[in-house]
């Protein structure tokens, strides 16, 4: 709570210490407004001519008074705003200041009651005059109702009627917080369209390097937060939105386009982020027109939007690129175009004729209708020189000049003491400035001379509000046109179908789960068993080749008659079974199935829509791999345990045997086919059947020694000269294939013969059928355990992991970002969002325009000066 003391009154008050609505009311440039009260419980607003308005404000009164006065807040607020708007409507320009003052005093005298003035000392004695009109009940202790005052000001002729009708004060005032509402609309428009087609004005700060732009902005905000340094640190426009938060003591900044920073309460951190963002533009590129959006929320800032731009270069330095001057100039030109308000910052110690800011502003705003001049560093010239600059007629600006002294404090002990607990330096800056102007009040209190950061703040608020308000109709038309286009496009392209990022994410996740369910069908028991049989069939062929088909005694096996037991072949059959059952089937079958599952996840997360969401796809793959990894070794052990009995003995039954025998025959057929295919490839490569035959005959002759050396160097075999060595290798391979085909043929006929009918010792005589039966038993048992240990767990756990680790991990922003990774969804959402925002803006604009229309006629009719 601030204590407004008599000292403050005498020094023309610090407006920033007043409640917001009082600040708004006092934006009406009424000369001689003072605030007083012997204590902070009480405030008098004294208008020139003797009328004094007094009221208790809950924001400046001690707690014991609050309950009594709380209900006055709204009345006071709306009353003053009404009065203010009425004045604003009739007094649009800063020019004619004296005329306005006269006019206002005329109004006030209309309801002042015969010119009886209250005390001008700021004491409660001021209530003497206010009771004449302010309190309809004539109670000397009740402060007047400011809403009543406003109503009187709006309608002096009906004063009695209005004074008896308090219900009018409870009407919602749609034009309350007009600037705030317009700034909100502006922010929405900026987020829809960066092309400036749809835009409400902002205040653009221009000036040469070191003219004091940053100091002015920091004085307005009350914190040091802008990038500092010699190396041209302002390279991007900073779009600064100040949001007045009267009901919170918290001060913080937010970067809407950098949401990861969240609320930044430390202004040094804001400065660091701004510096980094600026320095992200390489020095070689000079400047970028991509703005940095910064919002500052504080009870000490007014509602304003300001754009800070790089300073005009006057003298190019050695370390600055040649085209820097050009780049900055064209960047500034883009921003100073209508409807923006130009804040032309000029240092008092530099001749205004040389001010690049004024030069630029005159190019686009020759009459100075939308330029406010700020003369900084007034302390660096004599007070008389200062006032001469501020009242200059050479470069007149319709909105005038305001002089400031806002050198950033050096943070010495005095300044640190002057700063508040949040490091807010506004007190220190203000105090310094106030002292300066107070010490030179003779020069600076001349009529028409506007000085002080607070005056500047108020001026900016007024100018911005008026400028925004004046642009309402144009913006509204542009927004309506844009809305019509967007609605048409939405109808044509999406048939008005709405979508949300959440529904898209749900759809994408559901799609994945459906894909998983479909994929699960290819991991059913029969399917897995078939895969394992395929894997084991290769192993059976290898064992047959190694143990039987390469055995020189194979012919004996073919001759074994039914019932005959031969030790050699019985041991072979045992060795073959052992080799097969101990070939690491637990590990290999688990890996085979896990690879299959990996493949399924890979396919599901590679195709659309996951092709747009590579990061999410990668995460999903990782979940799946984690589950598989966690199950793999246990599954492998379980399968291996289940197969243990087969390592010692395998019993077969008639039915199993017959089936195994059939499968073995067809496996031999396949092997036969494969050998034949290879043989014909070799024939082709070598040059046909005859050529191959002749090479084979050569080799046979050489090998049995019947080939005589006909030519060539001594010691070299003759065939080396006769054929291409590669063909000779191929021919050798063909010979082996031929032998294999003969064996396969023989074994097939044995398998088909009565020798391999189910019966005693048949496993020994027909190893092909026996190993096939064993491999089928192994595949069957393995598939059972793989289902239980791996597949069921995977298909249960994986969808749950997707929900818990993908879906529930995402916050609103992440969901929106995810959805927007898909270009067609992004286009749909963008258009839908644009349409929604435009509708929202249109509604807000219509409300404001209706309120403006409703308000305008009465004030114009009664008070227009023009
Ligand atoms: N004496 C005095 N010095 C001031 C005043 N305002 C600013 N300065 C000093 O002038 C210098 C430049 O001020 P800045 O606010 O950084 O100027 P700028 O225009 O932002 O400079 P650039 O960022 O380089 O474009 C600093 O050393 C300030 O302390 C003032 O009112 N009086």
Helix content: 55-70%
How would you describe the shape?
A: elongated
Give the distinct bound molecules. Answer: guanosine-5'-triphosphate
Q: How much of the residues is beta strand, in percent? A: 5-15%
What is Rg? 46 Å
Strand order of the largest sheet: 6-7-5-8-4-9-10-11-12
CATH class of the domain at 201-411 and 423-451: Alpha Beta
DSSP helix count? 33
Unreliable stretches: 1-98, 107-172, 412-419, 858-866
The assigned structural class equals alpha/beta
- Terminal Cα separation, in Å? 42 Å
What CATH calls the topology of the domain at 201-411 and 423-451 is Rossmann fold
Per CATH, the architecture of the domain at 201-411 and 423-451 is 3-Layer(aba) Sandwich
Number of strands: 12
Subcellular location: Mitochondrion inner membrane; Mitochondrion intermembrane space
Catalytic activity: GTP + H2O = GDP + phosphate + H(+)
Pfam family, one: Dynamin_N
GO cellular component, one term: mitochondrial inner membrane
